Amino acid sequence: MHNKRAVIFDMDGVIFDSEQLVIDSWRKVASLRKIEGIEETCRRCLGTNSTMTRSIFLERYGPQFPYDDCQRELTALFRQAVEEGRLGIKPGLLALLDYLKEKGYLIGLASSTNRSNVEWELSVAGLLSRFDHLTCGDMLKKSKPEPDIYLMACQALNVLPANSFAIEDSYNGVRSASRAGLHTIMVPDLVAPDQEMEALAAVILPSLNEVIAYLEEQSLKSRGKEALCTI
Description:
The chain is of the alpha/beta class. 51% of the residues lie in helices and 11% in strands. It has 2 domains: 6-17 and 89-230, HAD superfamily/HAD-like (Rossmann fold, 3-Layer(aba) Sandwich); 19-83.
């Protein structure tokens, strides 16, 4: 266990350019139903599971808000967009997955999205077989920013958090991974990093294209420390 290394990805906003697609779908629902401030509400939900998302919507719009009906309409719009090929894979992802496989990293996923949706999106993109384990939002009670999902992912992969890297785009995701003790790489998507993110993340990179160079640098540092220990 102590020698194994892992990289654990968030999904929405890291693997897929899906967060904007979700917001666009919510805009259509909001337009038909005359719902105000939908984009701000969606941004509050970034990195949270379905239970927390529901709570945020009911808090914002009141207990009588027809969340379930809206969610069904949203899901239909989003799935249609995915089936039409509008769910883009983030630049640099495929090269990064190839690199991780070649270097012997375990590859995990820690997404707040429900498992059935995670598997469907990864399958449509032809990526499902690239991951050694999926940890999803409906597999545990506490959502990001709590550390539970990353601790569960590390346990499932049989790796120490200290030997693992997380790749996240949202504030809640960075909080979750850093609280779990992983080296957290923030690759911002819809929300720019603030001072809190700069303090919590091990590094902030502009895209997945820069992750390989960062991991190479960390590997060299690790080998250097090991060499000093043997002197």
